[in-house]
Structures are given as structure tokens and as C-alpha cells.
Amino acid sequence: MPNLTFGPLVVEAVNRMTDMPLDVHLMILEPLKLAPDFARAGADLLVVHHEAVDDLPQALAELKKLGVRAGFSLNPETPLAEVEPFLPLTDQVLVMSVNPGFGGQKFLPESLDKLRRLKDLKDSGAISTEIAVDGGINRETAWAAARAGAEVLVAGAAIFKSPDRGEMIRFLKEAG
Predict the structure, then answer these.
(1) Are 132 and 154 in contact (CB under 8 A)?
(2) pLDDT category, 175, cuts 50, 70, 90?
(3) pTM of the model
(4) Residue 133 to residues 25, 35, 37, 62, 68, Cα–Cα distance (Å)
(5) How many alpha carbons fall within 13 Å on the CB side of residue 3?
(6) CA distances from residue 5 to 25, 32, 133 in whole angstroms, order as listed
(7) To the nearest 5 percent, what fractions of the chain are helix, strand and coil?
(8) Which end of the chain is more exposed for a tag (fewer CB within 10 A), N or C?
């Protein structure tokens, strides 16, 4: 079993406590092996890394067969053009604005270009996918990411290191 921050048992426990949708980012190798466990646990959206699957369209189709919304993320060094043909197949595209691996990293401003391009595609009607961003989201970067096109702001350190987590969550909701 790979090292997981939050496994299916945690997702199942959280699912029993809330009616809110559960978005699970499978930042692991071979994510399709564990996807069924997370779907059974109550995940509403499963996001896999484009770089971790051999065939992205097939991976998205497999996720949808599990009865969940299907998304993919792309690492900072991956050009958006590489995945543009697959955007109509996904429910969410997650732009990684840090290099995946650990929390508390600084936001990479070049991520804003990807968010702007995605927003342009959505505004033109070419895609309808939800646009999300993950990494380095805080008081300084949330508004810029949202203005660039992010509809979902994923924040960890900004919330958990805040002296007033509730206020930080309200701020991020307002920004996003």
C-alpha cells in the first residue's frame, strides 16, 4: 500500500459527517488501482495526475465508470497544450502551482498563464470544465489566481497555519 496522507477510511469517515462534495486528489503513482476504494468511500470527484497515467482519456473514462466526477491535474512543467485535447473529457482541470510533493511551497506565478488560457477556453465555450489551482494559495495569491480563471482554490498551509482558520476560509471563499 502506498504512503497516503488521507486514505479511503478517512474519506469514508468524512463522508459520514458531511453532505459537502468530497474532492480527492490522487497524487500517487498508478492512481487507478486505488480509485475504486476512494469512490466506494464516498469521493465525489477523483483527480489523477496527467503525468501518472499512460492514457489520460482512458483514465478519465475509468473514473467516470466508478460513478464519480473525473478530473486531472498537471504539474508546473507540463505545457497546457499537451492536455488541451482532453479538456472536454474532464469535469475538472487542476493546475498545480507548485511542484507536487510537500506543502508550504511558494506559488509559481507562471501558473497564472495556464489559468488565463483555461479561462479563455471556457469563456469561448470550447470547454465547460471546472478550473482549479493547488499550491501556494494564500492571501497574496488567491485573488490573482481567481482573476486569472481559477474557480476552485485549494489551500492547505494558508488555512492550517492561520491563527484564525475560519477567517482564512471565509477570505478564500470570497476570493474564489
Answers:
(1) yes
(2) confident
(3) 0.92
(4) 12, 21, 25, 23, 20
(5) 1
(6) 11, 17, 19
(7) 45, 15, 40
(8) N
Range of the domain at 148: 75-176
Count CB atoms within 10 A of the CB of residue 146: 20
Q: Does residue 53 sit in the same domain as residue 79?
A: no
Count the domains in the chain: 2
| Residues 123, 41 share a domain | no
DSSP string across 70-116: EEEEE-TTS-GGGTGGGGGG-SEEEEESS-TTSSSPPP-TTHHHHHH
Q: What is the grid cell recorded at 110? A: 507562471
Same domain, 41 and 84: no
Asked whether residue 2 carries a pLDDT value surpassing 60, the answer given is: no
Residue 98 pLDDT: 93
**Using CA atoms, how far apart are residues 67 and 29, in angstroms rounded to an integer?**
21
Name the percent of the chain lying above pLDDT 90: 86
Q: Report which of residues 2 and 74 the model is more confident about.
A: 74
